[in-house]
Design brief:
CATH architecture of chain A: 3-Layer(aba) Sandwich
Number of strands of chain A: 8
Strand content of chain B: 5-15%
Structural class of chain A: alpha/beta
CATH class of chain A: Alpha Beta
Largest interface: A-B, 21 and 27 residues
Number of helices of chain B: 12
CATH topology of chain A: Rossmann fold
Helix content of chain A: 25-40%
Order of helices and strands of chain A: EHEHEEHEEEHE
Oligomer: heterodimer
Shape of chain A: globular
CATH topology of the largest domain in chain B: Rossmann fold
Strand order of the largest sheet of chain B: 7-6-5-8-9
Structural class of chain B: alpha/beta
CATH class of the largest domain in chain B: Alpha Beta
Strand order of the largest sheet of chain A: 3-2-4-5-6
Chain lengths: 173, 311
């Protein structure tokens, strides 16, 4: 087991991602942030919290998206859905999708499909905490990357969060 | 994460976890139904036949809508106007339909146990949409979903099922389900419409006085007097039934609390339920109909799982 990000590095990375998103979306009026259920929510919660400290909190529109019904492996295995909560329109908005680990790209493919059922966004960007390079099965890349790592398919990236696991750390297993 | 059953034949066969899973999944489908595009691609490659050997408005439309919202292909079959009138057997009809590559069967039949018989003989997943006087599982589930939505929980809830218990598959599914989820149940109605040993068999309360039943319960699930299933006279007239067991606003207002009113539909207005009660704020009858689609989506989705890969 190898530590990819320790608690301090993780905090700094989250802070940087928040700043980078804000840098590209100075006027947050037309921007919405969407975390991917279930694990992306831990990252997006923290990034949103970070951004809300930098600008008036009411400007930050934040939703949660579950992709279970859009998965491409529904034939072989069934998953229980999580809660989707997008209490605003995404029509003509700049959408930043936030997830924890970008691996095969299949989750993001499903998320793009799911997103389009809520309207037609002007632009969609992707923010990822850990990018597992060279393991993509679909042509999908992130716009904001916390950290890129090289890994082989049998390895696992695990992200621990304080609220859930009692510690904050990213490890490669 | 999977149901313990391959078919949804009755609530009787489900576990507490199964019911919980269906209700929780339905909550998420209800959110899907609020979106600008109320459709998900989950069952894009599934073909479902709706086999209705008995009349239905709500259930058939609700199932069909649920299937379409899940992107399944649907075929509708009604017994009247089909080869059933030429004498084709149930099994022959279904096998012929299945040979056209159908994956799931939603079935309503006037004979109790018809879907159970089918489940033994065909490979497709079967959902019971009401069989005779046995069960109507998706109605039981949507009733429970609506109660949970309105009152926050099922455990410890006091539910009175009022009316024709004897001929009601809705009552059976409600009793099985609420029992498994830890609610308290009372059946109320005239003695002739309440099965003799129901108290011992299901451990439910029995009450013959409507006012006492309403005073006890949090939720009153009012059943329809099923005129088509009354081949013997079990009460003297509809008017008399209505006088003793009809619920109206005046009666509800005279109670010291607000009882939630439910009805599986179609209502015989002025018989078991007066219009002023059916259309009041206490009534969640239309919510039941709305929730029906989400609950049926959940059942279809969860039963479709593990169909195997494309090759």
């Amino acid at each position: 087991m190898k530590t990819v990000l320790n608690e301090q590095q993780l905090a700094i990375t989250i802070k940087r991602l928040g700043h980078q998103i804000l840098e590209n979306h100075v006027n947050l009026e037309n921007t919405v942030l969407i975390g991917i259920q279930p694990r992306g929510i831990f990252v997006s919660d923290q990034i949103v919290q970070e951004i809300r400290q930098l600008v008036p909190p009411v400007l930050v529109k934040y939703g949660k998206l579950d992709i279970t019904f859009y998965r491409d492996d529904v034939r072989t295995s069934l998953h229980a859905p999580n809660h989707t909560d997008i209490p605003f329109s995404i029509e003509n908005k700049n959408v930043v999708i936030i997830d924890d680990v970008l691996w095969t790209g299949r989750t993001i493919r499903a998320a793009l499909d799911a997103l389009l059922d809520f309207g037609r966004p002007a632009k969609v960007e992707l923010c990822i905490l850990i990018d597992r390079r060279f393991s993509r099965q679909l042509p999908i890349q992130a716009d904001y990357v916390g950290k890129s790592i090289d890994s082989i398919i049998s390895q696992k990236v695990k992200v621990f969060w304080k609220e859930r696991d009692g510690k904050e750390e990213v490890v490669l297993m | 994460m999977q149901l313990s059953v391959k078919h949804l034949l009755g609530i009787r066969d489900l576990t507490h976890q199964d019911i919980q899973l269906i209700l929780d999944t339905a909550t998420e489908f209800k959110e899907v139904l609020q979106r600008p595009i109320k459709k998900v691609p989950s069952l894009r490659d599934v073909t479902i036949v709706n086999l209705f050997y008995e009349n239905s408005t709500r259930t058939r439309i609700s199932f069909e809508l649920a299937e379409k919202r899940l992107s399944a292909d649907t075929i509708n079959f009604t017994a009247s106007g089909s080869s059933v009138s030429k004498g084709e057997t149930l099994l022959d009809t279904v096998n012929n339909i299945l040979s056209m590559k159908v994956d799931m069967v939603v079935m309503r039949h006037s004979a109790s146990g018809a879907p159970h018989f089918l489940a033994k003989h065909i490979p497709a997943a079967i959902i019971n949409a009401g069989d005779g006087i046995n069960e109507h599982p998706t109605q039981g589930l949507l009733d429970a979903f609506s109660m949970r939505e309105r009152l926050g929980k099922l455990e410890g809830l006091k539910v009175a099922i009022i009316g024709d218990i004897m001929h009601s598959r809705v009552a059976m599914s409600n009793i099985y389900l609420l029992k498994k989820m830890g609610a308290e149940i009372m059946v109320a109605g005239p003695p002739t419409l309440i099965p003799k040993y129901i108290q011992e068999a299901f451990d439910v309360r029995v009450e013959y006085n409507l006012r006492k039943a309403l005073e006890w319960c949090d939720v009153a699930n009012v059943l329809r007097i099923q005129l088509e299933r009354q081949n013997q006279v079990l009460f003297s007239s509809l008017r008399e039934y209505s006088l003793a067991y009809g619920i109206n606003k005046q009666l509800l207002d005279s109670l010291n609390k607000e009882v939630v009113i439910m009805h599986p539909g179609p209502i015989n207005r002025g018989v078991e339920l007066d219009s002023d009660a059916a259309d009041s704020k206490q009534s969640i009858i239309l919510n039941q109909v709305e929730n029906g689609v989400a609950v049926r989506m959940a059942a279809l989705y969860l039963l479709s799982g593990g169909r195997g890969s494309m090759n």
